[in-house]
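Dear support,

I submitted the protein below through the web form. The confirmation email said the job was done, but the results page showed an empty box. After a refresh the structure appeared. I'm attaching both so you can tell me whether what I see now is the final result or a partial one.
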Amino acid sequence: MLIDTEGIVLRQQKIPGNRRMLTLFTKRYGRISAGTSINEKGKGKSALALRPFTYAEYEIFKNRGYYNINYATVKRSYYGIGEDLDRYFAASKVLEYLDQVLQEEKAEPRLFDLVLEFMDALQDAEGDCTMMLYAFIVKTFPLMGIRPELRHCANCGKPVEKDGPHHFSIDAGGILCEDCFRMEQRGEEAGENASARGRRGRRELLFTVDFDIVGVLQYFGEKPFRVFDRVSLKPEYREQIRRIISIYVSYYLNIDILDEKALI
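What the results page shows now:
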């Protein structure tokens, strides 16, 4: 059966028989692995569509779960992203993230459109692209069903004051009020070192920040990508944001995408 679908190349590898295996994020079929005999170094239009950072229309032969790319036409090439280190880093992290969170053959059209928005903005970015990367990950949380609670205490539901220090609990999935935060602290002091899903201690899942973490996360979730290459934060704030997002993703999606070697 022949199928046509838009897709974004996440990665590719050589396989025996002078063939290549591509991992595609397609709009109609989600994440799929597809083989092809098309030569990436060829001069045809299909060759360009095999490269990462490429958005293309693919003609694919499907047979009992096996996919083979017969032909492809590039709709948009983001190859220029690779010419800038900051843009390349951000785009590579997004592709790595998608490769790990997407399920085989499960369509995610809203996430697909979000990726294109990100790539379009990243292609033209001139400043620091790290905030764009963080914004992309935060924007995926509602689509993954793990949106953090930012308006009310994630434990008791009480509205959280806008002013003053904020307490963010990875385990609870959002902001804590002062009372619930003190309860968490007392639990730690009493020696409750229960691990979170077998990976992290409770202390590593609780943050107190002296900047508006609620506003920052809401800003990431609501603003268009094109504003983020102009965002400037103090280094210590940037590092806390990286750690919170990194641990949140690790806790709820079981992947490590923003380790300490990530640009901050």
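Response: this is the final, complete result; the empty box was a page-load delay. The two ends are 47 Å apart (CA to CA).
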